[in-house]
Amino acid sequence: MIIIEECYSLKSYNTFGLPARARFFAEAGTVEDLRTIVNVFCNDPKPKLILGGGSNLLFTDDFDGVVIFPDLKGNEIISQTPDDVYVKAYAGENWDNFVAYCVSQNWGGLENLSLIPGNVGACPIQNIGAYGVEAKDCIDKVDVINLKNGEIRQFTNAECKFGYRDSIFKREAKDQYIVTAVTFKLSKHPVCQTKYADVNEELKKFPEVNLASIRQAIINIRERKLPAPEKFGNAGSFFKNPVVSMNIFNNIKAEYPNVPSYPVNEHNIKIPAAWLIQTCGWKGKREGNVGTHETQPLVIINYGGATGSEIFGFAQKIQQSVLSQMGIELEMEVNIIS
Ligand code: EPU
Known about the structure:
Elements lengths: L1 E8 L11 E8 L2 H11 L6 E3 L6 E3 L3 E8 L4 E6 L3 E7 L4 H10 L24 E2 L2 E2 L4 E8 L5 E5 L20 E11 L9 H7 L7 H15 L7 E5 L5 E3 H10 L6 E2 L4 E3 L2 H7 L6 E2 L2 E3 L6 E4 L5 H19 L8 E3 L1
Parallel strand pairs: 2-5, 3-5, 4-20
Antiparallel strand pairs: 1-2, 6-7, 7-12, 8-9, 10-11, 10-12, 13-19, 14-16, 15-16, 17-18, 18-19
Helix pairs in contact: 3-4
């Protein structure tokens, strides 16, 4: 079924809860309907926005273009070997419901990505990641529709050019495709990833380590640390963890001997943005209706009634402060839609 609306409120379609409106809003329930929508709008010069769970977006204004909402549901096994299962999930599936389903089948790979907000279709775009695992570790293929001509194609894992919170869909192929489905290669003999200190600690509360206990441990950690979007509007981590040169890192370490870090390669090192933001005095800071979360300052919160441009302005202040105090430019992870 195809639904096309005009001047449509996106308030319930973005986890910041911002009352932005779309000039046109087009929703499709099947891949064929989605192709029809693409054919209707492909020669229209208005900007297009593909909306998933709306959990990584900040509308600074109304969207004077066409919002396309692929409401494609379900999943199916494509093939199996004695060791692996290839399962295709459609773009409109809720991410965490799909992770729960995989865990219930004892298919390993996605359990560390439990409780990440959003839909399946968004997972390859920014290569979602948490607790030592990234979506790219399990993605086999990504099915897409070309927004210019409605053609269908598949990207292999390598063609997606995945990086840390990055893929071809944020670079060369930005705004060119709609993801319709993602095929995951999951293990029938799961190996649990418990290297992350927080996860290891939480798992001690469970009698055994298996996919279900890892999932529950991660749900517990996330519920403690991260604000639920239903309570306070937010889009998870607002900034990426910056990768800096050893020079910059050593300068910071001279002043802050306890600076946390993760090695990237022999020349570069990652510093948690949360630490930079906290050290610059922004942890739990609130200005009007906007603030950083008390236990994870990487998350910016709409305490109610904030506008997108207020949130954007607050984020820019954090960027300026970290730049002037630490000499590091924080990159926004959230997509700014203006
Ligand atoms: N930290 C502080 N102060 C704080 C919180 C954290 O200094 O108040 C420092 C600590 O040194 C801590 C480090 O930051 O060890 C890392 O914190 P955390 O484990 O919470 O992870 P993160 O690097 O801040 C990333 C992802 C999260 C993901 C977690 C868990 C990014 C941008 N964010 O956050 O992803 O859940 O790891 O693996 O990579 C998201 O993308 O929306 C998201 C929530």
